[in-house]
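Input (structure):
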């Protein structure tokens, strides 16, 4: 093997080592996160470390503005008064809302705010019988007579209308030719998506909006 070939092999080997080191550094810094509790995150002992914190979203604590979601979480198995502020920039699941479990991964700043680069939301599935429910068409036909009454509304989520909590309207429900806007800031089951068959419990208002207090998937008979 001549000197020129040897020199090339050494250069190639060094390049491979450098590239491997860079890749390992990137993966190691971005992929690993220490799972800690809300209380541990609030202690100040994990500043500027990559951590993962799970907690329940505090009711009405969220603000979604300029593609930045700010909210607070708490640990339901510990002190509910101890909360952690979270800021997340990224796509927010339409099921996000009051009471949903948020698994947040990121770093704490010097003010104790968790800047999450990743967020996964979880809400257990719940099912409701359609027995005693009304359709959107029936509700619109009996508009004034049903204002202020608590009702169960059955129908399908109209494609393209489903958004995360914090908006005036969460989605549009349709059934038998009628369409009604639904307002709701709570958590929704993970399976709730476009064209999902749902049962919405709530109050029909004189503003022509159904203010929901609970949303469940329609129980299959």
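Output (sequence):
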């Amino acid at each position: 093997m001549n000197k020129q070939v040897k020199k090339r092999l050494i250069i190639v080997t060094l390049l491979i080592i450098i590239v491997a080191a860079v890749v390992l550094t990137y993966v190691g810094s971005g992929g690993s996160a220490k799972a800690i509790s809300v209380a541990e995150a609030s202690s100040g002992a994990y500043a500027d470390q990559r951590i993962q914190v799970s907690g329940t979203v505090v009711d009405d604590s969220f603000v979604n503005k300029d593609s930045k979601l700010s909210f607070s979480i708490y640990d339901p198995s510990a002190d509910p008064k101890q909360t952690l502020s979270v800021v997340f920039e990224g796509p927010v699941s339409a099921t996000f809302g009051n009471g949903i479990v948020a698994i947040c991964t990121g770093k704490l700043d010097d003010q104790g705010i968790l800047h999450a680069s990743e967020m996964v939301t979880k809400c257990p599935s719940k099912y409701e019988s359609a027995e005693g429910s009304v359709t959107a068409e029936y509700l619109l036909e009996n508009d004034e007579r049903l204002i202020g009454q608590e009702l169960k509304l059955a129908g399908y989520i109209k494609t393209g209308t489903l958004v995360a909590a914090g908006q005036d309207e969460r989605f549009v429900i349709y059934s038998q030719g009628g369409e009604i806007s639904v307002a709701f800031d709570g958590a929704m089951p993970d399976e709730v998506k476009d064209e999902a068959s749902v049962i919405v419990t709530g109050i029909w208002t004189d503003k022509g909006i159904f203010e929901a207090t609970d949303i469940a998937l329609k129980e299959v008979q």
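Notes: The chain has two domains: 34-122, 127-218. The chain is about 20% helix and 40% strand.
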